[in-house]
């Protein structure tokens, strides 16, 4: 399967007069390029993406129908999109979505919905079109009846809708969509261990704080914090502590609030999240100097 891909890379490289060393720069080693061209190694999606950019061609040029239909191909696309989401690199997400729009095997079923979900992110974060993004998101759901949703993607999509509603100041609408996402767990308990559950708990805690419903916010923070401990996974652990501290300070529980913020700071230091550490240090300094929560 990948002998075909390697041969296409070799032919195009020869055609433009490019050496293996030049092609390998910022991609991989020269020996790896050689092994790919000889059909000994299978190139990753990331490698093909970078090589296609160097040649100025569509990535699909290197792929035959069989290779595009591989499940590991779609998995690599997902991994690239997941990293771009973590980095909030919506321009790169747009490039991938536009690129894969020409791949018919990623334009059906769950794969199509997954790519459309990312298109909605681009529409909102790059072009500020909230209504259009929400419309796209809702088209990604596995069922138009929100009480019949059963997939992890459904939960992610509803979470995205909730985020937009909160950002646009539609707080009760945000709560509605976040709660609908959690209701998927009533039908698919196996999803309870997925990180999306903690994302939704965290987002619900923030919107309840916005609504000055601090006890509800604290409840969701505690659920998320306990889930982190149970799963032995630090994802959002610091953020839950920060949000707990914020709520307690807003309720006038200064000692408890500052204690949670200090715990959040300690976790963030261990995780080496520089920008987040600066943020919470500034929050602590502001509160200690002025006695206010910004």
TrEMBL record:
Species name: Salimicrobium flavidum
InterPro entries tied to this protein: Cro/C1-type_HTH, HTH-type_regulator_Rgg, Lambda_DNA-bd_dom_sf, PlcR_TPR, TPR-like_helical_dom_sf, TPR_rpt
Annotated keywords: TPR repeat
Protein's recorded name: Transcriptional regulator, contains XRE-family HTH domain
Single annotated GO MF: DNA binding
Domain HTH cro/C1-type intervals: 9-62
PROSITE patterns linked to this entry: HTH_CROC1, TPR
Repeat positions for TPR: 155-188
């Amino acid at each position: 399967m990948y002998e075909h891909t390697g041969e296409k890379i070799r032919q195009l490289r020869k055609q433009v007069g490019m050496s293996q060393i030049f092609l390998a720069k910022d991609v991989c080693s020269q020996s790896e390029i050689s092994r790919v061209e000889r059909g000994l190694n299978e190139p990753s999606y990331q490698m093909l993406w970078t090589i296609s950019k160097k040649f100025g061609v569509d990535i699909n040029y290197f792929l035959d129908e069989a290779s595009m239909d591989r499940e590991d191909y779609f998995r690599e696309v997902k991994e690239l999109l997941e990293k771009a989401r973590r980095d909030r690199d919506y321009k790169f997400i747009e490039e991938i979505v536009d690129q894969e729009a020409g791949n018919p095997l990623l334009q059906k079923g769950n794969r199509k919905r997954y790519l459309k979900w990312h298109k909605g992110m681009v529409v909102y974060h790059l072009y500020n079109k909230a209504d259009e993004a929400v419309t796209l998101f809702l088209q990604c759901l596995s069922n138009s009846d929100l009480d019949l949703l059963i997939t992890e993607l459904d939960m992610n999509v509803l979470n995205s809708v909730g985020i937009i509603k909160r950002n646009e100041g539609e707080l009760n609408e945000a709560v509605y969509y976040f709660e609908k996402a959690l209701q998927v767990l009533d039908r698919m308990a196996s999803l309870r261990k997925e990180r999306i559950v903690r994302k939704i708990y965290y987002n619900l805690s923030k919107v309840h704080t916005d609504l000055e419903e601090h006890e509800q916010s604290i409840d969701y923070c505690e659920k998320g914090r306990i889930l982190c401990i149970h799963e032995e996974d630090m994802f959002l652990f610091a953020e839950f502590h920060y949000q707990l501290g914020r709520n307690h300070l807003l309720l006038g529980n200064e000692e408890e609030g500052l204690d949670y913020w200090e715990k959040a700071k300690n976790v963030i230091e261990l995780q080496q999240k520089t920008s987040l550490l600066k943020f919470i240090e500034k929050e602590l300094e502001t509160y200690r100097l002025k006695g206010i929560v910004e």
